[in-house]
């Protein structure tokens, strides 16, 4: 684990911050240039076994940026140590985290097929389960706590390296030109706003605006946060489900105090429902996350969302 991460950290810096022998550094760079060109199957048999000598670690010159990257990678357990989860048939049920991070999909015979990177692991996995069920058996997920682009890439690379190191090859789904797993990011509509802004005096009550909005749009999800970045687990789940069933829906951020000021409380009165998220279809409240989830699991949503 340690050696592995130190390799992955030093890879990013031409001035290696950790003391690696020349051969190790070289073979590592070769590994990665091969990997990026998607060259022939990688083989490590001729490489010398790195001598594990974790001490002393030379961290000079001190560079907080690099150090941070290393620490972030450490936050995700390595692939071998990560617990395997077997989602239900649709790939959505249970323990899968809806946060950002890295995930690995194994087929039913336990072969790793794909290592992916996602802002919403649960949503990505359920997409795979839907599009290529025959290749999906179980999944490992590593949440990245501070999911900036660099940290996510770092986590993805560390799993990739680990897999390549052990198996000598890139996961089949990550081979170049393989479009089985990577598809276009879902089209993102903007979230709807109830008002032109906090500074404008409303001429009609907020309740009327809500009423108009849910009646003029087939499916409306009132959530915390935006559809591209839901801010609570329930909202995330609702979005994941709506995306998964391919619903053409509108989203409204109840926490947007600039454009939807007062919405959170007014909505609860309007619908007589105490919690957010709330999903409306044809102007009627369907319910919140639990109800939507249960309808989704019973396969009742497709007909509900149909015209
Ligand atoms: C790196 O480690 C080797 C032995 O592991 C040692 O001989 C060498 O002096 C070290 N180099 C640096 C720059 O610390
Ligand atoms: C892509 O990868 C999957 C395995 O994840 C494999 O079954 C499929 O045949 C590959 N497709 C191509 C075009 O290589
Ligand atoms: C070689 C390679 O990295 N292929 C793909 C593996 O999966 C990631 C994540 O989706 C893609 O970005 C890579 O292109």
From TrEMBL:
Gene Ontology cellular-component annotations: mitochondrial matrix
SUPFAM superfamilies reported for this sequence: Thioredoxin-like (SSF52833)
UniProt KW keywords: 2Fe-2S, Iron, Iron-sulfur, Metal-binding, Redox-active center, Signal
Glutaredoxin domain mapped to chain residues: 219-286
One Gene Ontology MF term: 2 iron, 2 sulfur cluster binding
UniProt xrefs under InterPro entries: GIY-YIG_AtGrxS16, Glutaredoxin, GRX_PICOT-like, Monothiol_GRX-rel, Thioredoxin-like_sf
Hydrolase is among the record's keywords: no
Signal peptide: 1-16
Gene3D superfamilies: Glutaredoxin
Location of the region described as Disordered in the Swiss-Prot/TrEMBL record: 174-197
Protein biosynthesis among keywords: no
Database matches in PROSITE patterns: GLUTAREDOXIN_2 (PS51354)
Family membership noted in the UniProt record: Belongs to the glutaredoxin family. CGFS subfamily.
Protein name: Glutaredoxin domain-containing protein
Record organism: Clitoria ternatea
